[in-house]
């Protein structure tokens, strides 16, 4: 049973990692990193123990973060994932990730306590001296870390913050987020966790879904259900600034714009944003016309 639950955790995490990379690939040329990540993920089917699962998860994570780092602007000095304490990050991206993972940890801990599961009994993680003893909390976070990864990518690629939004403390010289950005970031995280996903005929916020999955885990452990699956529901990650769409916008002629019923100011805005590297959003009515 331990292996079955651990496998479900890793399968779900890997599936979401690949989905985030596919979302990035709509805009950036990361075909090789994705291929390498999928190659490592292929070994998941051969795992026969929890140790094997952790090995595969680690190798997939290495390739995933290499792909992730490849699209981050060099000015942020992000060279890969730092797994130290949330207050020990030395670059803005790792600090933003650490902060939001802390929020996710709180959501998972609350769900576990609500259902009445024992937080110290994990399936994938083992208690350690340098982390909390609540291994199940760390287990439950894994399939939902993509929520944080996605928010941070959106912020970075839309240039929603810069080094000016951070500061080093005077006593221990640790990097911190300035209050104005922290407020905006908290709003984005709240929006992400509250965003609905269809599951068994109902639209549930992701934080509610985490609670639902805890309930399903409890029923599985009690023998009330035959299987436990964390891969569903599959999130929908859409973007309106794909490479194909950017190219189409840049090719728009005046006659094309008239045919699509797009005003001059709208076309000017779209072309200006399409030339930039930043992530941008196209409003649904305009997007529908561009896809005609």
Secondary structure layout plus pairing:
Layout: H1 2-25, H2 31-42, H3 50-70, H4 92-115, H5 135-141, H6 145-157, E1 166-168, E2 175-177, H7 179-194, E3 196-199, E4 202-205, H8 206-221, H9 243-251, H10 254-259, H11 264-275, H12 284-290
Helix pairs in contact: 1-2, 1-3, 1-6, 2-3, 4-5, 4-6, 4-8, 6-7, 9-11
Structural class: mainly alpha
Q: Report helical residue fraction.
A: 55-70%
pLDDT < 50 stretches: none
Beta-strand residue fraction: under 5%
Helix/strand order, N-terminal first? HHHHHHEEHEEHHHHH
Overall tally of structural domains? 2
How is this structure best described in words?
- This protein has helices at 2-25, 31-42, 50-70, 92-115, 135-141, 145-157, 179-194, 206-221, 243-251, 254-259, 264-275, 284-290; strands at 166-168, 175-177, 196-199, 202-205.
- The chain is mainly alpha-helical and 292 residues long.
- The protein has two domains: 2-221, CRISPR-associated endonuclease Cas1, C-terminal domain (Four Helix Bundle (Hemerythrin (Met), subunit A)); 243-290, no CATH class.
- Strands 1-2 form a two-stranded antiparallel sheet. Strands 3-4 form a two-stranded antiparallel sheet.
- A hairpin with a 2-residue loop joins strand 3 and strand 4.
- Helix 1 packs parallel to helix 3 (50-70), helix 1 (2-25) runs parallel beside helix 6 and helix 4 (92-115) packs antiparallel against helix 6 (145-157).
- The mean pLDDT is 88.
